[in-house]
Amino acid sequence: MKRKFSILLLLAKIAIACFTMGFLVKKIHFHEIRSAFQNPENPLFLVFAVFLVLPNLFLQWFRWHTLMRRLYPGTSPSESAVSLFGGMVGGFVTPGRIGEFSRPLFLKNVDRFQVLGLVLIDKLYAFIPILVGGLAGVVSFLSYAFRYNVFLVWPLSFAAVCLSGLALLWAFNPAWTRNFLYHLSVVFPTREKLRKFIGIMDVFTKRDACLLLAASFLLYAVYISQFCLLAFAFQPIPWTTALTATTCTLFAKTLIPFSIGDLGIREGAAVFFFLRFHVDKVTAFNSSLLLFAINIVFPTLLGLLFLPKMAIKN
After folding, report:
1. What is the reported pLDDT for 163?
2. pTM for the structure as a whole
3. Label partner for 261 (CA 20 to 30 A): which of 89, 141, 150, 255?
């Protein structure tokens, strides 16, 4: 019964992705999309965006390897890479890339529940820059949409700063999470697994938190830069417009993880936000789709190379 439900859920997510993409292609017109791909205004920006996939992947690996070494000091760089890229395959076919929690399957002689805890920490710290940048983008977008009405801009800015400050304060103090989980474990029915996660927080220091957060913000900056460069390749637009639209798009697709690989959701959000700044919808769609190909499809293909290793280890 559970397996049938999982299959139905997967099919539903595929259907959402196909329907959304089909709707967007029909609305924008396929020949316009193809023409823009064949004749970009500035192909050099495409080259720069593709080149940035290298620091993108390195920062993802660095973050994950740093976490693994804290819990398992003997973890080699190749083991971290196998686990990371292998998890990307699971992330590709799940909404919100939740399938990346399959990383423990690619590791040998580890406590898989504890490694799941590390993946959770990795994903939470990856979300902090998306939250901070997304809130700033939303404030900028709404300010523009409502002609910088002071009675709207100031309350929105204050709320965004407060939320961002709280998120950063939590991120810089991992002991807060540990203390919360410790008190929660007292009343939790199955304490043992929660205690394992608390054990992870014991070795995760404030220095580790700062390092992880710095890597996460650098990764976010690389991702946004790629998105902006791809948009510049198809149409000359102000960098402030590109920055606002891309941060809003990334924030929106993270909060609405309903399709496979976020396909269709990301493109629809990009069209919505770019169009509000009078940017051609073809530019928004193509740049978003290329971002998906560069940062998700390419690493997933690398991850497929590690699937045989998973079969051997398990």
Report:
1. 95
2. 0.88
3. 141
